[in-house]
Amino acid sequence: MNQAAGAAGPLALDAEALYAQLRRGVRDLLREHTQLAGIASGGVWLAERLQRDLQRPGSAGVLSSAMHRDDFAQRGMTASRQTQLPFDVNGADILLLDDVLYTGRTLRAVLNELFDYGRPACVRLAVLVDRGGRELPVAAEFAAARVLLAPTQHLALARTDAGAFRFDVREV
Fold it and tell me: What is the rounded CA–CA span in Å between residue 131 and residue 101?
C-alpha cells in the first residue's frame, strides 16, 4: 500500500487493517525460535498483540531507545517503558517491531540498547508504516504500508480504550 498526504487530502490509514497485513507478514518471517521485541511504545503494543495472536510461547520483549538517542540532550528521559528482554539475547533470532519507520535514528538507538544485553545471531525489522525520509541506511524486512508525509508531520500509533489501533497525525 502506497499513500501520500498532501494536495489530495488528509492521510487516512486504517491501523487495524494494516495490523492484519503486518500479522500475515510477520507470520512469514517467523522461524521456530524467533523472539519478538517491540520498540517502545507503539512497537511494544504490536509485539504484545502479535505474541498473543500468533500464539507464540512466552512474552515479547521491550526495547527502549532512551539511553542511546543522539538527541538525548534535547529530549531527556522519556516516559516510555524501559527495556525488558525475557529471553537470552546471545545467539537469538530477534524480530523487532515498530509502528513507524522514519529517519532510522530510533532503530540505531534500539540496536545499541539490544547489544548492551548480548550478541544476537540475527536481528530483523517489521513495521506497520514506512514513511521514508531515512537519515541512516536501515530498512524493514516487512512494512504493511509505505506513505509519504511532510517532514512537519508526525505519525504515531495510538490505542483506544478497547485496545484497537488507530493513527494520530499531527503537525510538529
Answer: 6
* 29-82 tens-digit pLDDT: 999 999 999 999 899 999 999 999 999 999 999 999 988 867 655 545 555 689
Read out DSSP for 105-166? HHHHHHHHHHHHS---SEEEEEEEEE----SSS---SEEEEEEE--TTEEEEEEE-TTS-EE
Q: What is the pTM of this model?
A: 0.89
Q: Read out DSSP for 87-100?
A: S--TT-EEEEEEEE
For residue 9, the 8-state DSSP code is B
Q: From the CA atom positions of the chain, what is the Rg in Å?
A: 16
State how far the Cα of 120 lies from the Cα of 90, in Å rounded to an integer: 5
Q: Are 148 and 5 within 8 A, CB to CB?
A: yes
Three-state DSSP class for 38? strand
In angstroms, rounded to a whole number, what is the distance separating the alpha carbons of residues 96 and 159? 20
Q: How far apart are CA 119 and CA 135, in angstroms?
A: 25
Contacts of 63 (CB under 8 A, 6+ apart): 37, 38, 39, 40, 43, 83, 85, 96, 110, 113, 114
